Amino acid sequence: MRPIQANISSHALQHNLKVVRKHAANAKVMAVIKANGYGHGLMPVAHALNQADAFATLNLSEAIELREAGFTHPILLLEGVFSSEELRIAAGFEIDVVVHHTHQINMLQTTDLMRPVHVHLKMNSGMNRLGFPCKDYATAYQHLSSCPQVGEITLMTHFATADTAAGIQQPLARFSEATKTLDAPISLANSATILRHPAAHADWVRPGIMLYGASPVTGTPAADFDLKPAMQLHSQIIAVQTLNKGDGVGYGAQFIAQQTMRIGVVACGYADGYPRHAPNGTLIAVDGQFSKTLGRVSMDMLCCDLSDLPDADIGSKVELWGNLVPVDTVAEASGTIGYELLCAIAPRVPMKVVD
Ligand SMILES: *Cc1c(COP(=O)(O)O)cnc(C)c1O
């Protein structure tokens, strides 16, 4: 079998949940496990984070999978439902829904449900994706609170700039103004808000990326927030080549040897989820020692420098990202963020829960 594997650490997930609780001690924690638990696997993540107060996901099918596995936590669908049929099913499984648009209110008013559904009413505080404009928010709330199909209502928004210098002052002020007459629990904070804006922790926090041990703030390593990587992507060296001065490596010969050198060929490529945009020199670890990638990443393989690693050979263990190589370091070198690399781990990579 090809030696690539992703190890998932329940211990790290649980540690990171404690970090969330340390920051937001008075808030309840809704663990965001969309995108297959940010690539870590829906079920392993849900089991590891069983101590969370609620889960959030995107697809009704994922929410049902959690219910059928016995999870009794509140489960929220972050984009709500897409049809009356889905709304009926959600109510049947006691799954909560985001309401972000008038058409979803109409759906609630015109669909017969087994029981009322709990709703998170979303305000558009500046992201301009989902949510009611501030000026229409109180009216939307009134419509929902007078709708017999609606149970509890939570007030919610999602910040566009919690991780940047712009901060959340303006959107938070907008939210507070629009909700000042409403008496209901409030949910505002993604990971960046949890770590950087304690004033917005409110009643519920919604951590995603920090649970997985990557950083929500570009330029600040996850370790600075005491977060531990929940995924280690590792593989092995499956071939060794000795290059002479002037020899190229990989498609397009993007790396040319300046002297005689050994390189290792690693069983991991972009079809496994390693970014093709990772340039020459991206950090990698071989037998626990730091090295760098050489040449273009191909579909199934990439190459690394063994010049300073004379003992490395076929079978040497390679960490693509994990405890030694932060996923954010690979992401930054490749012009993206850790979120994208974790979510894009390919289905062909076997996953194993290791602790
Ligand atoms: C994905 C998501 C989150 C989690 O965001 P992170 O940056 O991963 O912490 C929180 N709230 C909503 C509405 C989301 O869609």
Report on the structure:
This protein has 355 residues and is α/β, with parallel strands linked by helices. It folds into 2 domains: 10-214, TIM Barrel; 231-354, Lyase, Ornithine Decarboxylase, Chain A, domain 1 (Beta Barrel). It has 11 helices and 18 strands. The strands form 3 sheets. An 8-stranded parallel barrel has the order 2-3-4-5-6-7-8-9, surrounded by 5 helices. Strands 10-13-16-15-14-17 form a 6-stranded antiparallel β-barrel. Strands 11-12 form a two-stranded antiparallel sheet. Helix 1 crosses helix 3 (42-48) and helix 7 packs across helix 8. The longest helix is centred in the N-terminal third of the chain and has 14 residues, at 10-23. It is elongated. The mean pLDDT is 97. Bound molecules: pyridoxal-5'-phosphate. The site of pyridoxal-5'-phosphate has 12 residues, from helix 9.
Write the topology of this structure.
Elements: E1 5-8, H1 10-23, E2 28-32, H2 34-38, H3 42-48, E3 54-57, H4 60-68, E4 75-77, H5 84-92, E5 96-99, H6 102-110, E6 117-123, H7 134-145, E7 150-157, H8 169-179, E8 186-189, H9 191-196, E9 204-205, E10 231-243, E11 248-249, E12 255-256, E13 261-266, E14 283-286, E15 289-294, E16 302-305, E17 317-321, H10 327-333, H11 338-343, E18 351-353
Parallel strand pairs: 1-18, 2-3, 2-9, 3-4, 4-5, 5-6, 6-7, 7-8, 8-9
Antiparallel strand pairs: 1-10, 10-13, 10-17, 11-12, 13-16, 14-15, 14-17, 15-16
Helix pairs in contact: 1-3, 7-8
The structure holds pyridoxal-5'-phosphate.
The site of pyridoxal-5'-phosphate has 12 residues, from helix 9.
